[in-house]
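Item description
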Amino acid sequence: MISKNNRQNSNFQILHFLVGSCHTPDAAYALLCDLKEDRERALSKIKSADLWMQAKILKLEEVINNPDSKVYEVLEAKAELIDIENEKPFAQKNIDAAYNEFDFIQKCMSKLEPHRKYAHLSLPEAHQAMQKEEWCLELKHRAENFLLTEGRIPHDQFSTMRQHPDFNSELLPFIESTKACIQNGVPLQSIKLLNANLAEKLLGVTDAG
C-alpha cells in the first residue's frame, strides 16, 4: 500500500488515477467537485472540533482541581490531558494535509474550467449533461482493454455497451475497428488508443502541484 501521508488522495493519485481516469473535461470537473466537497466537509468540522476539545479540557481541569475528586479520577483526568496534548501535532498534520489537498483540487478545477463543454449550465445540470459522452468513451476504453488483454469482451460488459444509445453508431464500429487491428497484427504502439491521460493533456500541472 502506497502511503497517502495524512491525505485522502495524493496529488499524483488525483491527477493521474482520478482525473486521469476521466475522458471528458466535464466528467473530470464533476469528479473534482465531489473531491472538493469531501475536503470542505472535513475542514468545516475544525472549528466545532476545537470547541468540543476546549470543553473537554475544561471538564478535565475541573476534575483535577476539585478537592472532592478521588485520586484515580484525578490521575485519569491528567492522563487524558496528556493524551490530548500529545495528539495536537498529529491533528495539525491532518489539517494541513487537508488544506493542501483542497488547494490542489481547486487548482485542477481552475485549469479544467476553460475546457468544459457545459460550463454554461448549473453544476447539477452540467453533471447530467456530460453523462452520455463520458459513458460512450468509458465503454470504448473498456472495450480496448478487454480486447487487448483477453481478446474478448465479457458478456456482462457487452450487455452494458448495447444499452448505450450510441451503440450502433459509435461503440460497435469502434469495437470492430479495434478487433481488426488486433487480428491484422498491428503493433500495440501503432494502434490509436483512446487518450486516457486527460490530466496531462488539459491540466498542465504536475503531481508536485
